[in-house]
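Hi everyone,

Forwarding the result from last night's run.
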Amino acid sequence: MELAMIGLGKMGGNMSERLIRGGHRVVAFDVSPDAVKKAVAIGAEGANTLAEAVKKLAAPRVFWVMVPSGKITDMTITALSQEAEPGDIIIDGGNSYYKDSLRHARELEEKGLHFVDVGTSGGVWGLKEGYALMVGGDKAITDRLTPIFETLAPAKDKGWGRVGPAGAGHFTKMVHNGIEYGLMQAYAEGFEIMHEKKDFDLDLHQVSEIWRYGSVVRSWLLDLTAGVLAQDPTLDDLEAYVPDSGEGRWTVAEAIDLDVAAPVITLSLQRRIRSRQAAPFSEKLLSAMRNAFGGHETKKAR
């Protein structure tokens, strides 16, 4: 098949390369000319504008948008919809909020365009290992895109599938990332407990390697953790600052809307937020309250 990849960041560039290796024709566009040159170097056809990308494809066209979620995605899809023709397909493979995807589907349908949302997981390992793809959209349209999904996935029959109508792909990816938050937090807390047990002088990398085989808690995430600990056992050079992409927040908000208790995911999100505070006001107030009612000792800020 042929398609245009709109957005050639790390993930979009790697996806383009995997598609090219799989025999697909890829027209590449990015606001960065250097990114386009890199794509051309691996076999893509470059486009300097969205209009040029449209002209290089035969109708009905397929456009895969791989840009940051939110305003940039909105702007890109709007601009693309003005260049595309009825019958063309626009795929959003970024981490968009599923309600935004529902809106995009409605707006594009009014113009005779098809919208497919693909929750994509795989990160920097996707080029080698393949991507997990959670596909949302009209079945007749997603069926036409099967060769693309089969190439990007870990195998033709594994790691991808249509999960429902438009919006379902990004909704599923949202929950996926919420679960990811909880798993990461559990590993982090467990390793911190072992790190603080100074009596045993535990080798955390050794423990992670033991757990990787035969253990109930073995996982790819643990494999990555073992690799990190092998290179930097103390993590002394890292700051305890953990950003979030927004998907954990959306998952927690959705759980509240659905009256679903999700304490692990919620607390893991809160821990990430707390990691960005050097001196949380709430802890200062706790210290002051203990001093007020019991005369307990406080520590003065340096």
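Residues 168-196 form the longest helix (29 residues).

Cheers,
N.
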